[in-house]
Amino acid sequence: MAEQKKMVEAITPMEEDFAKWYTDIVKKAELMDYSSVRGCMVIEPYGYAIWENIHDLLDRRFKELGHVNVSMPMFIPESLLQKEKDHVEGFAPEVAWVTHGGTEELPERLCVRPTSETLFCDHYARIVHSWRDLPKLYNQWCSVVRWEKTTRPFLRSVEFHWQEGHTLHETPEEAKAETEQMLKVYADFCENDLAIPVIKGRKTDKEKFAGAEATYTIEAMMHDGKALQAGTSHYFGDGFAKAFDITFQDRENKPRHPHQTSWGMSTRIIGGIIMTHGDNDGLVLPPAVAPVQVAIVPIAMHKGGVLEQAAALQERLKKAGVRVLLDSGDQSPGWKFAQYEMKGVPLRLEIGPKDLEKGQCVLVRRHDRQKVFVPLETLEQAVAEQLEEVRRGIYERALARRESMTYTATTLEELKEIADEKPGFIKAMWCGDAACEEKLKEVAGVSSRCMPFEQEELSGACVCCGKKAKTMVYWGKAY
Amino acid sequence: MAEQKKMVEAITPMEEDFAKWYTDIVKKAELMDYSSVRGCMVIEPYGYAIWENIHDLLDRRFKELGHVNVSMPMFIPESLLQKEKDHVEGFAPEVAWVTHGGTEELPERLCVRPTSETLFCDHYARIVHSWRDLPKLYNQWCSVVRWEKTTRPFLRSVEFHWQEGHTLHETPEEAKAETEQMLKVYADFCENDLAIPVIKGRKTDKEKFAGAEATYTIEAMMHDGKALQAGTSHYFGDGFAKAFDITFQDRENKPRHPHQTSWGMSTRIIGGIIMTHGDNDGLVLPPAVAPVQVAIVPIAMHKGGVLEQAAALQERLKKAGVRVLLDSGDQSPGWKFAQYEMKGVPLRLEIGPKDLEKGQCVLVRRHDRQKVFVPLETLEQAVAEQLEEVRRGIYERALARRESMTYTATTLEELKEIADEKPGFIKAMWCGDAACEEKLKEVAGVSSRCMPFEQEELSGACVCCGKKAKTMVYWGKAY
User: Fold this and answer.
1) How many CB atoms lie within 10 A of CB A124?
2) What is the pLDDT of residues A138-177, one digit of tens each?
3) What ipTM was estimated for this complex?
4) Could B122 and A35 be called an inter-chain contact, meaning their C-beta atoms sit closer than 8 Å?
5) Chain A contact for B460, CB < 8 A?
6) All structural domains of chain B
């Protein structure tokens, strides 16, 4: 292994410089390239293929629950953005403004959508008239723009890809159920497909979405102990519906405003995959979204039918629905090993003259380097089993890390000490007062990540002010 | 039938007002809604589902030929747009300019991409170094913006969705072969999946893409005899590569510029589907892209197991991979018939108590109203056959119409007379001089649609100036 690694340029170890480790990976695994536009990136084929797989897996889940896709304009007239007060306050400072079309100045500025609540509401106001028109279960795949000062590939970019669901319902109960259902969809997707353990919970008022009554979130822990908000689901009540005059005749023929939700997951999750599973040799991809699940590297490939046999195995795996690649390039096997490790391919399949004699091949798991010798006749089954082993293995590794880096604090000193010395999450009780939240930020540098659905009674008193506690909160530093 | 039609609001007959017929269909079939942004539309679920099917069918073809998807920024800095002279002249007058981010004025204006040649070149210049890096076979699915004065749903909108392929090659021959290959892909897709007959050919210099050496096109004829450019494929030579300094070491280790192509198809093709196949009862969709291929309408559905049987048929068709919908709503069958006709569903399946007794159901083809009685046990096969009948039937109908509306002219008077009196295409010889092209526009109101690959020797002289003819051209009015 030592020899092989010399052949590819090494990446900065994460213990040495975590931020550099991250950008080394996104560049060397060829996920993205910087562009000539500040804060906007080129998503290269390997990175985009991951996003395409995420798209397909999520889109199938959405559609099974009755959602349909639409396309809204990418521009929002300034007057439309201003219709909902909290919303415009949250977003106006960070939008890109179009002021000219060709050589003419526009009569009204248009912003490039930072999110599309206002556009959906504008459309819904035109098409929703009766309770028979409800629910509306719309989703959109697109890119949005937020004029961020400091950007990082995938984690925070001026333009990013996402999906945004926007739904309308007859009753608050239905809308709340939708909000919770979609959070569960995200959590299920993260845990089962991305192998990323998440904490489900509700955001405090300070951290909620601009214009929402309630924001639900799933929070994942990265290698460095920081939190990544991986997906959010918002309940709006009828605030937007009132602001945009969306009215329907209810079952008693009375005019009413519908209740609304929105929910989104973005290319940011690719950053989450890197920082949850990656290691000092590069990316480690969950099999469900890996563009290549198995890389076949033939050994001494010009000897006695090795390449032919490798090609035959590739065909068999393709037929079995595996995303498989055969590397018959003229580089050394060692170089190829390092290459596919950098790219996070879950399984490497080695086959050489000796394996042929024995009627076997070797599967090597990317994440723990375990080698498995597999009789050729049972290859399909072995690959399926090993891909599942990878999924289970990286999930459990991430969960164990999160548990070992989650602490409990009952006093402010304790919390501050942990926050200063130990990266990770801190569980502590909170009275519900925004002032205490501010103070923890100021004193310990942590923000509230969420009020988890799974509550624990750590003590009766707020960790900050000592008054009666209302809820347990996960605190931490965040991306 | 007469009674049924009364129940849905009628659309304007195309013979009366073709433009109104078109907009009636896009609205009443719920393909789109106008938005608050001039020239930008909301693509509603039914319209967007058509685009998703187009996406999937084209994307599969691209990937089978080795193309990969990427994502470029949606913005182009002004200086980047200006690097290729012809290109900026063609596009600068019709772009949207972003001048402010949040409250700050930008140091350099950004345009919202009208097309992405400049962005791809900028990226390629960074990542292409050796002949080993070639070819680059990239494609992008996105929306682009062109600040058009006059807009029409799908046909010409300020923002539209498309795919844009951008490829780089070692040699001119390879790049030309790619240009032609992709035109064939588009033609095959139009004829086999969309059932739209097209004429393949090359654009004259006047009509070619800004910055291209050669533009190839497929041209379809609409109901009203006008042409719709359905897809284009461009050969750039090394013009962009020089302007953007894309250089690679060739096999002899000498620095060279690669040769380039781009090719695109857009949501405009949805307008083409409407105006090729639609009729005065609404949309007629080709089965390959129809969101619903079979609509099951139960007759007297609460009698003796009709609804249960209809549901069982739905399950069987779903399993067979058919996109099928069962309408168990409380409207009358007649209302439902008219509804699915408006929406262009290729096949309607009727089943009632009498059919149950006979162990049969009825399939009704949307485009020619043919009824077929089908024994229930062979339903899957019958549906597959009838869907193919629809595809073949609407293709042949469109082809026959195009042939009956294509004329030949050998003199200017003849051409003018046809252009004035008969909507359609006019085949005529041309000397290759742009002045004659201008004159035909001026005198007869027609533009050159293409120089078709399938040439005919209609006469030896240019239809306009009488000098020696170089090529046969299709002339016509166009969308």
Assistant:
1) 23
2) 999 999 999 999 999 999 999 999 999 999 999 999 999 9
3) 0.95
4) yes
5) no
6) 14-277 (3.30.930.10), 294-386 (3.40.50.800), 406-476 (3.30.110.30)
